[in-house]
């Protein structure tokens, strides 16, 4: 098994053995410039290689060979050589930056000393790779497709994709990008780092951040025009996005509404049920919607909230940030009204469910935060369901206010995937409802490229896989199932680092694989976490001096991030170039029918402790079967064409509402196929009351698995029901393990050829054999190199392969 590095030490510089002599302190380069004697040997070597690659680029251009990829390599090489010098000359500052991250704090002096030459090593590495690849193209060994570059001025959002120069385009950039730098600075906004303009988050120690925030409105109802300039002075040049930053609330609001902070959350600093807070935000949203109507900076949409959640259970980690430690009278009264409607005015029924003795709905009281010990009881369900509904009501209000003045404004919410992936449902987020509500799908999906750096956190996935792919794929498959015709925006992708993982020597193979995987599964735009270097190499404004943030994550985020890793940052751009070169093929592979659908019930998720954990195990077993997985819910069954799938698999869904049950029965009545994992499926309502009704086949097909059926048996039954939808191309894989780690997608093109995309997510090399169901002979071509391949070939760990299969 590969060793996953949590830190780094300087390895022997084997890359330099093919370079010019390391002993020379002065050397000549082709442009007749002289290398400085003060440069260290790594920088000298890098400078020579830059000159060599530039000369090769001139040769390539004379042959009409695209050198967009090499232009970025040169740019990153030159930038990071500059950054390495800054790091070397500002040792104390770098020590402090390492010290903010507890994982590195103990070794901060050693790491700060090693960092500059580590960065120079990695610059040499990316230059060597670039020289080799361009040399192969110059010699005719390979032929690459030219890059389909993003038109940062004229890209448009269409129904379910961005389009640039009449082709699909996948946007890339960095969220929270070099705060303090003007949007016109080409060293920050360019083809290499991405060039989306935005009003994003500025986590200053005080609430007066420079995104769209509560302080724009004064007590007299007028707007702070000076703060508004942060929005109005954004040049109408590049496309971009805007963020509604909900952290702060002015003091004058607290004076008028003493309860306004009750029910706050980590990134929403006020009670969303408070009428004054709503009035203020209604004014802000209408004003900013009017000011930006038709502007390019909103082409990628409005982010309606940053990582919203309202965890309301005792003992949750968010309570140390004062999240939902109490609720306001407004929230309580809305809950009472919600219960009145839910129970159709029957207080006796509520009392029977709750074990209480309230005389009327206006007397109802509840302790918040709620005790998780009562999970599965009616009171838990009612509060948790209401908490979701009230947040959906808030976002409906926000979007409606925006659309009242700017009806075509696109919207999305930075939903944390854990709101869907984790077992807890006390956070107040209905992932499906919000995906249906907004015009685009929004989130901040992440992955782990190596072991979790936080004590006590599991990294069990590493026993089988090179990286934690499942937290990317299951979330994307769900979002693409419930909102299949919407653009998918990851407005803070944590693929490169996060609070729970980072690796100072992150593998470029991991970077390529995870970005490719997410894009294949639906991601149309990503803003990575994060770019925090000013052009001179210094960290951006917020990371200078003594840090005192409300959010503790930012201070430690710089250490071990891509800001210290030229090979990682370059690879992000390189993989996005390649994805955009094959954007039409990726869309073809992406937009396939999902023949098998897993039934998802928010009702069961609310009431049980392990719904998602156990559901993931089934999903994991089905993921490596060569076709895209999907999900259905009550809403999907009722609103989407049921012919889009062959069968629905109901797994560990004991608690469902009558409406969910009726949706499944209606699907059977129309001739659908339903597989139940056991006779207990669907047996309880949302309150745990036994359901008398049972599904009947009618015109459809109902399969009830025998008692004790395991995941493998259920899986094989499901695969048999969708066997008629398996692809024409047969992919056989041997990875030397007892479990599968290679995933693939195939699609037949209009010209009769087949696209095949293969990703090896395991630790070992996989041997792949391609054939056709009908037994006809085939030719295989690697689309990345234009070279012919055998029908049997190896794919290394984290390998990415896109091939074309032609029938002879």
TrEMBL record:
It comes from the Bacteria. GO terms for molecular function: hydrolase activity. Keywords: Coiled coil, Hydrolase. The keyword Coiled coil applies. SUPFAM superfamilies: (Trans)glycosidases (SSF51445). InterPro entries: Class_I_gatase-like, GH, Glyco_hydro_42. PROSITE patterns: PROKAR_LIPOPROTEIN (PS51257). CDD domains: A4_beta-galactosidase_middle_domain. The keyword Ribonucleoprotein does not apply. Residues 43-70 form a coiled coil. This is Glycoside hydrolase family 42.
